[in-house]
């Protein structure tokens, strides 16, 4: 699953980092959260979904890759 953060929506509340520091970090230069990995698989998907639900700005987008 591919993850991205809309820099215009992210207000730096850091809820994604609080829920899943393994998957997100705050970028001081960009002034918003960024995903540590673009592609997330396996057990980390549960943490990723929790981070999506925790984001008050709904700035995190998940894109499922089509089956090949």
If you had to describe this structure to a student in words, what would you say it looks like?
The chain has 68 residues and is of the alpha+beta class. It has 2 helices and 4 strands, in the order βαββαβ. The protein has helices spanning 15-19, 44-54; strands at 2-5, 24-27, 32-35, 60-63.
Defining traits:
4 strands; alpha+beta; two-stranded antiparallel ribbon; globular; two-stranded antiparallel sheet; Alpha-Beta Plaits; 68 residues
* Multimer state: single chain
Helix and strand content put the structural class at alpha+beta
- The appropriate CATH architecture is 2-Layer Sandwich
Major sheet: order of its strands? 1-4
Give the helix proportion (percent range): 10-25%
The backbone outline, from C-alpha atoms, is globular
Task: Give a quick rundown of the structure.
The protein is an alpha+beta fold and 68 residues long. 24% of the residues lie in helices and 24% in strands.
What's the structural blueprint in terms of helices and strands?
Layout: E1 2-5, H1 15-19, E2 24-27, E3 32-35, H2 44-54, E4 60-63
Antiparallel strand pairs: 1-4, 2-3
């Amino acid at each position: 699953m591919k993850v991205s953060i809309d820099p215009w929506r992210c207000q730096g509340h850091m809820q994604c980092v609080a829920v899943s520091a393994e998957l997100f970090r705050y970028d001081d230069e960009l002034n918003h959260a960024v995903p540590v990995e673009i592609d997330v698989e396996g057990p980390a998907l549960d943490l990723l979904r929790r981070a999506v639900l925790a984001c008050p700005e709904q700035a995190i987008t998940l894109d499922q890759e089509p089956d090949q």
